[in-house]
Structure formats: C-alpha cells, structure tokens
Amino acid sequence: MKMWEGRFKKALDSKVNDFNSSLPFDCRLYHEDIQGSVAHARMLCKCGIIDPKDAEAICRTLKEIEQDLDSGKLLFDSDAEDIHMFVEQVLTERIGDTGKRLHTARSRNDQVALDTHLYLMRQFLEIKQLLISLISTIYEKASANTDTILPGYTHLQRAQPVTLAHYWLAYAQMFMRDVERMDDGYRHADRMPLGSCALAGTTYPIDRRYVAEQLGFSSIYENSMDGVSDRDFVVEMLSALSLVMTHLSRFSEEIILWCSSEFRFLELDDAYSTGSSIMPQKKNPDIAELVRGKTGRVIGDLTGFLTTLKGLPLAYNKDMQEDKEAVFDAIDTVKMCLQVFEPMLATCKVQKQNMADAASGGFINATDCADYLVRKGLPFRTAYKIVGGIVAYCIDQGKTFETLSLEEYKSFHEAFGEDVFKAVSLTACVSNRNSEGGPSPSSVEAQLSGVKAFLDAAKG
Description:
The chain is mainly alpha-helical. The chain has helices spanning 14-20, 23-26, 30-46, 52-71, 83-95, 97-100, 108-143, 164-189, 208-215, 224-229, 232-258, 286-309, 322-347, 352-360, 366-375, 380-397, 406-412, 420-423, 426-431, 441-459; strands at 149-154, 157-163, 266-267, 349-350. It has three domains: 5-104, Fumarase C, Chain B, domain 1; 109-139 and 159-201 and 216-352, Fumarase C, Chain A, domain 2; 360-450, Ribonucleotide Reductase Protein R1, domain 1, CATH 1.10.40. It is elongated and about 100 Å long. Helices cover 63% and strands 4% of the residues. The strands form two sheets. Strands 1-2 form a two-stranded antiparallel ribbon. Helix 3 packs across helix 9 (208-215), helix 7 runs antiparallel to helix 20 (441-459) and helix 15 crosses helix 16 (380-397).
C-alpha cells in the first residue's frame, strides 16, 4: 500500500508503478535520508511536537535500519516508490504508529531536496580531493621536466619553444580552477531546505536552524518555495564536472597524440595501455581515449537536466526526479576517470630526446630571430618580413636557423652579427621568455611555487 493512497479508489497500475519509482537509483541516498530523518525527529522532540520516548525510538530504529542496509541484512523493496517511502515503511513496520509520527512537519518535497544537498556536499569534497591529488602528480611531473624543451603549438603546428614543465603547468591551472569550482558548488549546496515542507512551510512550531546545525549546514533557505524547487546546486555540480571532463579530455588528446609514432613524446606504462586483437605491434592509449569519450556523456548529463529544468513552474514537480540519474552518472564517471587518469600520468615515460628533436625543426625560433632584429633597431613588422624570407630560404636549402652561416644571415640584412646564433638557440629562446607566466626557468619556478602553495593550502 502506498502512503498516499487515501484519496484513491484504484491501485496504481504496475507499469505506472515501475515508471514512477525512483528507488532503483535514489537508494544510494539512504545514508543521507536517515541522517536527515534523525535530525528531524530530534527537532520535533525539542519543539514539543512528539514525545521524547517516541523520538528516541524513531532515532534508534533509524540507525538500526541504516546498519542493516550497510550489512546487507535488509534489502530494498522493489515495490517501494522511493528511498524516503522505503525507510518510513520499514520504520513503521518495526515500531508501529510511533514511526508514523516522523513525517510530521515535512514533505517528501523538502526531504528529497535535503538528501540531495547532503549527498552533493559530500561529493563536492570527495571530487575536490581527487583533483588535488591529480594536481600534485602534475606538479611532480612538471618539477622533473623544467629543462625538457619541446615545441609549443598553435593550430597544432609547431609554434614556439617551451618546456614540458611549462606545458603541463597549464593543465595544473585548469584543475586548480576546477577545485575552486568545487568550493563554490559546496558553498551553494550548503543551504538547508528541510522545513519548507511541500512548498508553504508548516503550522507546527518547528526550529529549522536547529536541524541545520545538527546536519552541519551553515544556512537555511529563506523562501520555502525556493527551498523545494531549487536545483541550481545540481546544475552547478554538473557544470563543474563537465569542465573537469573537458580539461581531462584536452589532456587526454595531448597524451593520445604524443604517444603516436608521429610524435613519440610519451610512452604509457603497460599497466595503463592495451593491445590490438589482430596487430601485435600495437600499444593503444585506450584509457585516455575512454576519458575523452566519456566527456560527451557528462556534458550530456548537464545539457539534459538543464533542458528538463528550464520550463518548470514553482514549486516542486516530478520532473525534478530526473536530476538524480544525471548527477549520479556524472559523479561516478568523473570519479572513475580521475582515479585512472592520475596513475596513468604518473607512470608515463617522457621521451626527452624526441621532444628536443621536434623542437629543433619547424623554425619555432623564428619569432626570436625577429626579436633579435628589433633589438638591433628594426621595426617589428620589418623584422617579421625579413625573417619570413629567411624561413623560405631555409626550406629551399634544407637548412635551419642554427645551420645558416653568418654570411647567409647578412645577405638578408646587415644588422645580423655573430651573436645571432646565441639568440636563436632553443635554450636562449626559452630562457629569454621571462615575462610573468612564460616558460623561462625563473618564470616556471614561480609557477611551480604557486602550485605548491595551492597544494599546501588545500591539504592543510
């Protein structure tokens, strides 16, 4: 029998029951549901709404139910409509009418909102820790490669020389912003909706702030309609996770490219690679490819729920049930990806010589050659045109800036001197880019210090 069947004359059709039920996925909220119910029962007792003996029996039995679910002694009833009704049903079966007093001064509308808040607050913190761990791995890999020179790219064309430390620290910055978004999401989820009831509060003399204090919330919803209908914090979780996956996907794309024979910049550890069923020579970056592929799934979770939410009037609507599967899937996917991506990165082997060889081709020191002429007094656009001519000459002659003779340089402009060779060396090209945020040793050291300070603050 459904708890709400009083005004109905027919039993719910079995197919409708299956369609309506959320227990198959919201059962994971049982810890939060019981936690919220215990706090609610204590508040009802404090406010004189239920007898202390009833409150004690309710709280004791709820904790027993939680232990039985944890151990597997109690199994979920597939006929139950949702986790809230299931817990209340078991409670009533165990202590009779006393259990029926628990739902005084609350609705499933504010109950499900509470459970979702509590669950997402915990998930924001757990995902934050996974991100911090990944940033720590990037920091270690970057620290070991401050002098590893490789080409930086624009349009996937070799552009200018950088170091691997500088390259990977860019990803550290992305994930640091993701950590900040987890903090922001937590702050917005840290608002207690219980006591909003169905939408219009209650006539009982409840103490919402007492419940919030018990559950660790720093504030409550100031408007009861907003309390039951707000799902901004769910969207923020989905949005933040979509950005995490976007950053992981971009990083994965780099790794996939760099593991190819065309780049040969990285080699993945055997524990994080797979082979081919037909080509024995293959070593495939499947983990990175799966992370890249699962990104579309998480973005789809965000897009789908935003589409669901956009047309809903106040206050609660059953459509909101669709937030659970979307956010659960996104959370599970991101956690799984972070847990395999980090060790994959930590164990990969950097092919330094291949990076250096790539950096020596492609004329990635052309801008530095132009800057050399600017320092000799030429306007940049004039210098740019001269160096463009030198590049064309080198391509025709099969030469590089390093292998040209001084006479060849002077044939393009008399300002060239012997010091041009030092100016166009890759080491000098990197070292001279000492603007804040650049790839020079001093700038990279400052960036590493910033990441280290971030990690120390996050861990401590």
